[in-house]
Amino acid sequence: MAAATAAVFALLMASALAGAAAGGDIVHHDDEAPKIPGCSNDFILVKVQSWVNGKEDDEYVGVGARFGPQIVSKEKHANRTRLMLADPIDCCTSPKEKVSGDILLVQRGKCKFTKKAKFAEAAGASGIIIINHVHELYKMVCEKNETDLDINIPAVLLPRDAGFALHTQYSPDRPVVDTAEVFLWLMAVGTVLCASYWSAWSAREALCEQEKLLKDGREVLLNVENGGSSGMIDINVASAIMFVVVASCFLIMLYKMMSSWFVELLVVIFCIGGVEGLQTCLVALLSRWFRAASESFFKVPFFGAVSYLTLAVSPFCIVFAVLWAVHRHFTYAWIGQDILGIALIITVIQIVRVPNLKVGSVLLSCAFFYDIFWVFVSKRWFHESVMIVVARGDKTDEDGVPMLLKIPRMFDPWGGYSIIGFGDILLPGLLVAFALRYDWAAKKSLQTGYFLWSMVGYGSGLLITYVALNLMDGHGQPALLYIVPFTLGALISLGWKRGELWNLWSKGEPERVCPHHMHMQPQPKTGPVDPSSC
Fold first, then answer.
1. In DSSP terms, which residues pair with 373 in a beta bridge?
2. Pairing relation of β-strands 352-353 and 233-234?
3. Of 224-233, 389-398, 478-487, 519-528, the least confident
4. What are residue 298's DSSP bridge partners?
5. How far does the signal peptide extend, from start to end residue (predicted)?
6. In the annotation, is 30 catalytic?
7. How far apart are CA 392 and CA 270, in angstroms?
8. Separation of alpha carbons 67 and 156, rounded Å
9. Residues near 185 by Cβ (< 8 Å), separated by ≥ 6?
């Protein structure tokens, strides 16, 4: 990125807020943070004074690093130096352009502070200003096992608000709507759409097969009303509530145990789920063309009967997931993560079912409060948003946890990714899939059914989420805060208006012809049997 046409007071002086009155710098002596050769500076508050077109502008207060040279404490000894935005913005790899004595403005990112400073110095920078990702200031320290600490440029950390203000002065305007958000919206809506149609198709095939067997007078272990179709799991109210409780416990565990090794464990778990999801989706698609291979089975130890088509597809899925895991730090790795994530979400929505509107309402209502609590309310107890910290993968070198769909912000000078959590797609998707299954069972058209309006509700709620995200200047938003009222509200309102709310709420399916009872009834001597009655 080209250097900004402004100057910043770069060799920073000790904060004038109280330093002058005290007759010296504002220094914090910390014996707990490790001091090692090359990393033994005291933590000192510093002032960053900015100029725009030769005129003095705002000033910002940050903290100096343990490493690097001591920052000059007299304003008259400081120099004015141009400010330049790093490219890449986190400076976790070597800058693409030579800096030629400018000061680099970088984001916190996921790599070590010392790593940023080394890359900045190697590119020719005279200093580095790091913008923290939270409002608080961190102490920029070195790890105990670091040895290469020959850093000869000063480093200062600014809090998030000050950094954003400084960045805004010296960078191009951010786009009102980044294309990444548009594509992420399309990706989320498309995933729910595909998963809903697959779920409804599977349910209809299972129902047709059951009715065929019942008409033939065979004993069937399958019971649609009480157990769901084979291979599918119907959740109930208790499991819906328990899901949110377990999710909260898991989120706290992620927050408390967040470290590199724990993220590695999450990557392994994600890969296992991604392989299963990708395999299930590919087998379902390819079985249309390779029916013989999909209907021929081979017994595998520990796995039981497995189709030949599954055996053929599995190696590809495993290799795909392993390649993503190995190369997940590359700039293009988001593509593999999204493919595995979408396949996993579609598979779960196809297998797990909401049997009626009552269960769907309980599930989404609990998820509604869950999202709000862990994004907003958790700040009161943990002093930061637990959900956002876990999603970003703070305290690790990873670019967030893998349980996300993400797309790089291509036209944003800040860079980074637009993300959406699996739960923001999966949980509303279960309700949308229920709506389509009901419509098909009731033989409703697209206009007279519930699926179209639940999809419109989901898309509108997600759209409002991104609008709120931009209005709040990028502060994380709980997507279910907006999605749940639109999606659930559409179904309940339509059901009430059409007089079908009780049927949706309790039974979750329309009145159906009972072919088994009809078959067992003695037929009258005259006249045909009425097919609309049991």
1. none
2. parallel
3. 519-528
4. 306
5. 1-23
6. no
7. 16
8. 10
9. 459, 462, 463, 466
Selection from 149, 141, 83 nearest residue 118 by Cα: 149
Query: How confident is residue 232, by pLDDT bands cut at 50, 70 and 90?
Result: confident
In this predicted structure, the answer to whether residue 334 has a pLDDT above a threshold of 60 is yes
Out of 338, 399, 424, 439, pick the active-site residue: 424
Provide, rounded to the nearest whole percent, the portion of the chain with pLDDT above 90: 34
Omega before 88 cis (within 30°)? yes
Catalytic residue among 90, 338, 371, 399: 371
Output the pLDDT for position 339. 97
Residue 392: φ, ψ to 5°: -80, -15
Assess whether 58 carries a catalytic annotation.
Answer: no
The Cα–Cα gap between 185 and 57 comes to 39
What is the helix (H) or strand (E) element at residue 251, kind and residue range?
helix 237-257
Q: How far apart, in whole angstroms, are the C-alpha atoms of residue 357 and residue 372?
A: 22
pTM attached to this predicted model: 0.73
The ranges assigned to domains in the chain are: 25-169, 179-213+231-507
Given 3.40.50.1240, 3.30.70.1560, 3.50.30.30, 3.40.50.1000, which CATH number is that of 25-169?
Answer: 3.50.30.30
The predicted structure's pLDDT at residue 77: 64
- Closest residue by Cα to residue 50 from 15, 80, 90, 92: 80
